[in-house]
Amino acid sequence: MPAEQSGSSPVRSFLNSPRSFPKRDLREGWPGLLLVAGVLAAVVGIWGVPLLVALLLILAMLFLHELGHYLTARWAGMKVSEFFLGFGPRLWSFRRRDMVCGLKAIPLGAYVRITGMNNLEEVSPADEHLTYRSKPYWRRMSVAVAGSTMHFLLALALLFAFLVIGGKTESIPSTEWSVTRVAGDSPAAGAGLLPGDRIVSIDGDPVATMGELVETLPSPGSTVSLGIMRDGDVLVRSLTLDSHPQDASRGYVGIASQTAWLSRSVEVGYFEAIPETFEEFGFIAKESVLGIGRIFSPGGLSNFFQRVADQPSGAEVSSVGGQTSLGSGVEDEDRVVSILGVLQLFSDFVANITEDYGELLLFFAIVNIFIGVFNMVPLLPFDGGHVAIATYERLRSRRGRRYTADVSKMIPVAYAVILIVLFVGLGAIYLDASDPLQLPG
Known about the structure:
Pdz3 Domain; 4-stranded antiparallel sheet; two-stranded antiparallel ribbon; 12 helices
């Protein structure tokens, strides 16, 4: 997110200027740099190279996000005073002209500090023309959206590479599917369904695939007779359908299957991959928006914290319909994945990269799209909050007279947002630590 304000020279002159760093700053920074190197070596020694690669990928992603803010801020003539990876105590830094760059102790993000991001910050009159708030609307917008734009551009490149190099994955309904998970306190659990069972009929009508099963189920409250294939024998079990947690009009059995779809790889040409890339991007972006809405709705937050309080139910990563999705498929369809969970999954993908490197490209693309979308939530402290404020000021300005929003009125909302995100993040870390996500198979 853009932090607090920016430098005065354009990007071109900055890039062409001499890169001389004060030796004193570098010498003083060596202990911190050696500490970082020691921590990375410990990561390799304890968890292996895949986790180190995963950590470096995430740090590179965060760096590119902030680089987008930095470059657009300098291009707009804003003063940037700091550019750091991490938060908390400073480990290592150097000064580049009027900006301090470096590493901090807590690797949970990154930031650039741009001068005058709001009207509450006190700025020297001599630097007022270099502030974010002094610039035209389109300049402020370019800085605010630059971080998410970098995520989206990276995701498009990753999706294109995934399609061209790895091929497109098509999913075909399997007739040999079986139940892999039964939700606790569900109709399926009450009827005695077990992992390994396969439902072959509903009220005597045969169903071959999971898709046919879903289409054939009657409305909630209906009692159905299920034909269940178990160890070569067909058993009959009756149950009364509940309402589906995400759609009250649909019947709910309470099972999930990781074998309901068979995947096959289809080669995609360069020209064919271009529209496919944008199609996949649009699908993931839409699902990200819907997922964020479900998770942070009152019902979604209630369900999430209930999951944290209860015994974790577990989750897997599966490929469905050509997309990699997170969730157990029964109780955790919208499980929030923390930075710890993302690291775990990245590490697993890197460890299996020789078998299927395409899945790593796809997962990295999904992470970038989700972060880019989430960062555009129109509330402070997200970048979307700065977009909303700038747009509101633009709409309220009349006849060349610029309107300035009172940011102090938004501070309580920003604190509330930070607290909610913090509690959700801590809960997600707890779930990922106590019940790690796993790749199927």
